[in-house]
Specification:
single chain, about 260 residues, alpha/beta, Rossmann fold, Hypothetical Protein, Haloacid Dehalogenase-like Hydrolase, Chain: A, domain 2, 2 domains, eight-stranded mixed beta sheet, six-stranded mixed beta sheet, about 35% helix, about 25% strand
Amino acid sequence: MKSKILCVTDLDGTFIKDSVQVSQNDLLAYHYLLNFSDFSIATGRSVKEIHYVTDQNAINCQHFIAFNGALIINSDQETIFSDAIPQMQVAELLDYLKKEQLVFDALDGERRIGNFSHEHPERLWNMEIICPDNLYDILIKRELFKFNVRPPKDTAGSCLSYLQKKFPNLEIYHSGATRIEITAKGVSKGAALQKIASSYDLVIAFGDSGNDISLFDNADISYCMSEAAADVQQHATFTVNHFSDAIAHLSQNIGNYLNH
């Protein structure tokens, strides 16, 4: 019987290095891996934004893992798993963000809402950030899957530590130099991978950020991009410069991996 293989990739910084478009080499690598593997995407972004990438590039995606695993959709657009941030914790987080006057945006699945003016609107993937005057009143009434808190670079580390201590009932990741991602407790890309991996003989993960560590830890083989922080790289099996490099290495060694 032919072995079933699944490749699961992060988007920003991994499959889309510039957060704008998939490079030609990486797109060719994707087409090559379809010869031996299914393909899924795991990202901090929304399903709507994943569709923007897959539709633009004619990509066949088996699973759409959005908001770092808070929402999982299959290829038939059926919901496999959904876990929004509890309303009480949304209220507490909003109170804190308002008091500290922190820049952020929140995602409800259809739109981004916040006080953040993105310096590179081309990276928003047809999902502009809405900045209403009554921001907090609007958000308190919505089902929210994720917050992106955006402290200055020089205070991001201390902000992350404080948020993790203040909100122990939320998952809080450092993702990029100036972005902290917040989801419901227990949500992670790795937990999402556990929910979809049982029918596969081999699972390979690709990523570049703190929110990809759990993905690496729950995959059989993992590839981290070389621009990633050292503490992220150490969780991966291999470090490569590009997604296409990972697929080239994987294709040369896939037989050995399956035999072991």
